UniProtKB/TrEMBL annotation:
A Pfam family the protein falls into: HIT
Protein name, per record: ATP adenylyltransferase
Organism name: Diaminobutyricimonas aerilata
Domain HIT: 49-158
PANTHER family attached to this UniProt entry: AP-4-A PHOSPHORYLASE, HIT FAMILY HYDROLASE
Example of a GO MF term: nucleotide binding
């Protein structure tokens, strides 16, 4: 047993000898993420994948739908099968820079994506969100994009933690074709 600054005792056995004040949080150590923190992995503006994608063939770019102001494409590094991104065509960094038309189309395309993904993959829920800026964890911080991640009961596993591997049960091209085919015209 160790003594805290106020004289109370606490057990540090679970901390491998490091001094710590116990709290209610579990720690998930992910040292592989340090590359994103240290390097940022941000592309040069002329190499922005969300600016380049609309100029490519939909299949090659993994685009499943195109709107007037935004488009939907599969995430090249998905958390789950069917992980989509909704991106404006304009190269803007944050949601507050989007026009009312872009905001409305991001919303309507998100709703359509949820319906289509549920129809083709029978998922049980979604994680939806935007990481705004490098400090907030945006993989591509300079181009606004919203994540739509389908979730299933029991889909969480420890491969990423134990083996540095993500178990994605379906190929990107297969998922893109299925979602694109089910997208309403």
């Amino acid at each position: 047993m160790e003594r805290d600054y106020d004289g109370s005792e606490y057990d540090t056995e679970g901390s491998n000898g490091f001094a710590a004040v116990p709290d209610a949080f579990q720690r998930l150590w992910t040292p592989h993420r340090i590359a994103y923190i240290e390097n940022g992995q941000q592309p040069a503006k002329d190499e922005c994948p969300f600016c380049v994608a609309p100029s490519l063939d939909d299949e090659k770019a993994l685009i499943v739908a195109r709107g007037t102001h935004v488009f939907a494409l599969l995430n090249l590094f998905p958390y789950n099968s069917g992980h989509l991104l909704i991106c404006p065509y304009r190269h803007i960094a944050t949601y507050d820079l989007a026009t009312p038309e872009e905001v409305a189309e991001i919303g309507s395309m998100t709703q359509t994506a949820m319906r289509v993904i549920t129809e083709v993959s029978h998922n049980h829920g979604f994680n939806i969100g935007m990481n705004q800026g490098k400090i907030a964890g945006a993989g591509i911080a300079e181009h606004l994009h919203q994540h739509i991640v389908p979730r299933w009961a029991l889909d969480a596993n420890f491969f990423p933690i134990i083996a540095g591997t993500k178990a994605i049960p379906r190929l990107l091209g297969e998922v893109r074709a299925e979602i694109a085919a089910a997208w309403p015209a």
